[in-house]
Amino acid sequence: MPSPSVIPVVCALIERAGLILMAQRPPHKHLGLKWEFPGGKIEPGESAETALHRELREELGCTVEILHALPRTTHAYEKITIEMIPFVARLAENSTEPHPHEHVALRWIKPAELSTLDLPAADAPIITAYLALRS
After folding, report:
1. How far, in Å, CA of 121 to CA of 108, rounded?
2. What secondary structure letter does DSSP report for 11?
3. Which run of H or E residues covers position 73?
4. How does pLDDT run across 79-124, given as a tens digit for each residue?
5. Average per-residue pLDDT in the chain?
6. Which of 4, 84, 92, 113 has CB 3.0 to 4.6 Å from 63, enough for a Cys bridge?
């Protein structure tokens, strides 16, 4: 049986005043109602950075300034395998306030609270890398 292709997915750890923005997935989508770092799939021919800006405009109606990348990780779910491409970012100076266009809810939380949320398994190594960077 051939191995499934890996789907590249970008996500943003958007920082503001010591907090991180988390988004809750819609109930009808894969991993419904779990909290996640906002982002999405990279389209063919798109760079990871371009995809992140597009996804955040579509999902949250906001614009960000990318500060730096975190290590990429791969996670195999039952039916799909994704490559997570995380970035640490902040809202751009002229950005509108994030609004949940595609999510159920948004929350700003302290980084220490990340482990208290119901997150997808693919987010665990991102949290570890982010917290290590902050210490």
Report:
1. 20
2. E
3. strand 73-76
4. 889 999 999 999 999 999 999 998 999 999 999 999 899 999 999 9
5. 93
6. 92
What is the C-alpha to C-alpha distance for residues 17 and 12, in angstroms, rounded to an integer? 16
For 18-35, the pLDDT digits (tens) are 999 999 999 988 877 999
Contact 8, 97 (CB under 8 A): no
Nearest to 102 by CA among 46, 41, 45, 43: 41
CA atoms within 13 A on the CB side of 31: 18
From CA 59, how far away is CA 133, in angstroms rounded?
27
Q: How far is residue 20's CA from residue 48's CA, in Å, rounded to a whole number?
A: 20
Q: Which CATH architecture has domain 6-134?
A: Alpha-Beta Complex (3.90)
